[in-house]
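Quick one, C-alpha cells below:
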C-alpha cells in the first residue's frame, strides 16, 4: 500500500486511471462534489440536473436514475410549504372560493406559532 500511495501521489486521479486502464487494471476516480456537479457528461445523461427554485435559486440535484426511452421524466423542485393548499381545497376537497376564504380568515392555514420553552 505504501508503494501504491507513493506512486499515486505523483499523478492526478485521471492520469493514474489512464495508465492503469491501459493494463486492464480496473480503477476509477473518486470525484469530489464539485467535480460531480461540473461534469458535463453527467449533465448530458441527466445523472446530474440543475433545478430552478423560487427562493433558493438554481441548484444541482441528482437526476432520475431510471432512464426509459419511451418514458422520459423531468426532475423538478419540491413545492413550497402551502404552495398548493388552495388548489387542493378547491379541486380535491371541493370547497368553494367563499369557503376557502373563510378557511384563510380563520387562521387555520397560518404557520404554527412557536412557543418558548418553559
Amino acid at each position: 500500500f505504501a508503494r501504491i500511495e507513493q506512486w499515486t501521489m505523483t499523478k492526478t486521479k485521471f492520469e493514474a486511471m489512464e495508465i492503469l486502464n491501459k493494463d486492464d487494471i480496473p480503477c476509477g476516480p473518486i470525484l469530489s462534489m464539485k467535480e460531480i456537479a461540473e461534469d458535463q457528461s453527467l449533465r448530458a445523461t441527466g445523472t446530474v440536473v440543475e433545478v430552478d427554485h423560487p427562493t433558493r435559486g438554481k441548484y444541482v440535484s441528482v437526476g432520475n436514475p431510471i432512464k426509459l426511452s419511451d418514458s422520459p421524466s423531468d426532475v423538478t423542485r419540491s413545492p413550497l410549504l402551502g404552495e398548493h393548499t388552495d388548489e387542493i381545497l378547491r379541486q380535491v376537497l371541493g370547497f368553494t372560493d367563499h369557503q376557502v376564504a373563510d378557511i384563510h380568515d380563520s387562521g387555520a392555514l397560518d404557520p404554527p406559532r412557536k412557543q418558548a420553552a418553559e
